[in-house]
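Section 3.1: Structural characterization of target chains.
Under the original work plan, the team committed to producing a structural model for every single-chain target entering the pipeline before any wet-lab resources were allocated. The record below documents one such target. The sequence was received from the expression subgroup and is listed exactly as submitted; it comprises 684 residues.
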Amino acid sequence: MGDSAIEVLVVEDNPTDARLLEVMLTRLTAQGFRWRRVDRLSDALTLLSQRHYDVVLLDLALPDSYGLDTIRRVRSTAADVPIVVLTGLDDESTGLASLREGAQDYLLKDELRPNLLSRALRYAIERQQILDDLCQTSEALQRQESFLRAIVDANPNFIFVKDEHGRFVLVNEAIATFYNTTPASMLGKTEADINPNFKQAEQFQREEQTILETLQEKYIAQEPRRSSNGEVRWFQTIKKPLLLPNSSERHLLGVVTDITERQRAESLLWQQAEREQLLSQVTHQIRRSLDLGQILQTTVQTVRQVLGVDRTAIYRYVELEADGVGPKTAAQLIHSTQDCAPRQPHLRARRTQPSPMTELLAIDPNEGDDTAVWNAAFKKSACFDRLLHLEPQEVWGIDDLTVDAYFDESDRQAALQLGVLALLSTPILHGEAIPKTPLSMDASLAGVMVDRRPGEHHQWGFLVISQHDRPHQWQPWEREFLQQLSGQLAIAIQQAELYRRLEMANRKLERLATLDGLTGISNRRSFDEALAREWQRATRQQSSLAILVGDIDSFKTYNDRYGHLAGDDCLRQVARAIAQTAKRSSDLAFRYGGEEFAVILPETHLDGAMIVASSILESIRELQIPHAYSPVSPIVTISLGAASIIPRANTDPSSLVAAADLALFEAKTRGRNRACSATGTTFA
């Protein structure tokens, strides 16, 4: 109780008894008691409502209250304050009744002693504390039980406990609902009383008896149960022995999980995984090549094998030239369908434009079929007429052409002669509107687009599969597979087309990289590569190799006086004259620098190089390009240096270039408009 004083409220109106109590309590002050006395119950109730007292010493015979009702009134005001009742020697029965009414103790007035009073007051406080603790514990247990019950009932799994005789002692709402009953009505019953499957109930009983005998839990991966309405669902069950504390009685705990939907979902997931794997394999096959023809042929063969159909074909739309005659690209088989009038009224309103031209690019038919004959007949059919007007992302199919209301009798007969009983088709788009993106799709290609010109078809073409020997009910996964495959095929087609364009661009770039943009002849980079190549060849063959280097005389003055546009035109004319003079196919002309040029002459000695140099001098003079400000001549001229060598293993091409440069310097020193050789020979 700690070190604080014990507050005692004395309710006693008898003066003699009051004085006796005051004397005793005064003696108990040293033991930690403080007290206050009132002689009316109303005063006591007022004090109890205003402050806390640790214990009430209560006489039952008061001016304003009498008997056990006095205790009740105190309890109604301060329910948690312990009460010690004062009673007479011959009124012990009243004391016992007081205990039943809520008092913690009673004292006989004639037997009061200080120690007895102290002990009674302290014990009363302790008893009240114990009682309060018990009440709190009981309330906590009740709350916990309600909480656990709510959890058990909220659990969607079946939860139950059975005794040794197989009777339910606890069930939750889930299992009661499954059997169309209530938890309370199941208590005390056995499995056989509620399970309509008596054989299963007997099996459960034997199974559970074994668990209780061996104290070994059991796991059942899946088992069926039939509900009260006859529905059979699949469950996963765990049953284990349950030993209650301080009891030798054994119980059985069961937790049953409904796995019906999970099984269905897993089955769908397995099917989806298999289809995605299949699509991935097909996609891998068609992506292995960048050749369009191989891609399309691989597709039709793989699709036919995977879906087990009789025929697979891919058609492409062909755009006409501006004059309306002839397709832009060569086709294996081209058939115009512009004369195929729509046969159904509901289609006629849609077809305001003529049917587009198509070409068959790939087909995988039955063995022995005449593809050309079949294709020609198929393109005249109403089936094909419908395929030409597929909407983007549409998957159109016929399960049984013999009963399909889309066609009239003549259409059906024509299709039956072709052997077509079931058909499924979807468009192949240009790639900017792929319908779905499966896991196998390369995301880096999904956004690739092909530029479309006005009037170009939105669809690239279409993929069609057909069944000939029997009708076929196309499943949703087959439709989705075909649609996804068309998206992958569109990307593969674009990839092949982009690769083709890339190859063309690379070849063009390669040519541009080796040509001088102004003059159109080879550039300095090409000169270095060609010289190294010819040097190696001459070294192997031990043949002579000659070069000419030269530049236009006073070209800076020409540019300053006539302007850069005239200078560019002058460079082009000079380059053309030099290239035309190097007549042999092995002779190569280059723009070496700004106004500098070079010529490589394989298998040419120095005298032969000088002959070519002389011809170049004359060709440029014949151009008669005015150069009024030249100190050399009134027309544009050039100075040339020639050198020739038979390469040795310990030499390199730079030595030949250096010799030609020295000869060029010699030509300029001697007055320009001439050619000099490395040995001193000069042509003017």
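Residues 114-154 form the longest helix (41 residues).
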